[in-house]
Amino acid sequence: MARRPSGPIGLPQAFDEARFGAERTLNLRVTRPTVAEATRRAELWLRERQMAKAGEVLVITGRGAGSEGGVSVVREAVQRLFTQLRKTGVIRDAHEHTAGSFVVTLAPVTALFEAPRRTRRESGPIPVVVEPGALRGLETETLVLLRRLADRALDGLGVQVRPAAMIEDEMLRQFAALGGGVPEGPGREARLRAAMRVALDEFDDRKFGD
User: Fold this and answer.
1) What is the pLDDT of residues 114-160, one digit of tens each?
2) Residue ranges covered by each domain of the chain
3) CATH second-level architecture of 7-106?
């Protein structure tokens, strides 16, 4: 059985394991992925952890000691990903923890809906990024939750008159925003509903916190 490193090398790792645990740690260094694999895996993982309300998480990229020029291309690519995810409402902050890792603070789920509005506030309507027919195959319970989310979002915008087309567009936006954090696979729609409930709870917390 492999022994845990002792002394100054093992102590920081032990603190990180106690602080974050396996569920809030993504170790890209272990599998040595390509840049494309690393960024895709990191994005999917961070989106999923956002839905789980994980708060702060640890992303380990390695520091590139064995890379050409001593620079980790994976580390640099993940840093660029952080910038993108901050703009799209997935993360709130990311800062260097060690030379080969980052502590990432995840944004609330409702930030996914607000980010596109901030970036396009002066450039006209926000485009819907899924086909209108995408809602047709959803279960009734899912549609009810989507409608509730749409109403909460429109409440926040102060929209009083809500034509059916506006409500459907808003439901599509909620569906598109949340769908990126719910991977494909068995039970996906149930997991999507769980994410919707998290978002509704956040809307309620904000309302009663005012």
Assistant:
1) 765 555 444 444 444 456 677 888 899 999 999 999 998 888 778 88
2) 7-106, 111-209
3) 2-Layer Sandwich (3.30)
Which of 9-23, 49-63, 137-151 bottoms out in mean pLDDT, i.e. has the lowest?
Answer: 9-23
CB distance 34 to 40 below 8 Å: no
Per-chain mean pLDDT for the chain: 82
How do strand 56-60 and strand 25-27 relate by DSSP bridges? Answer: parallel
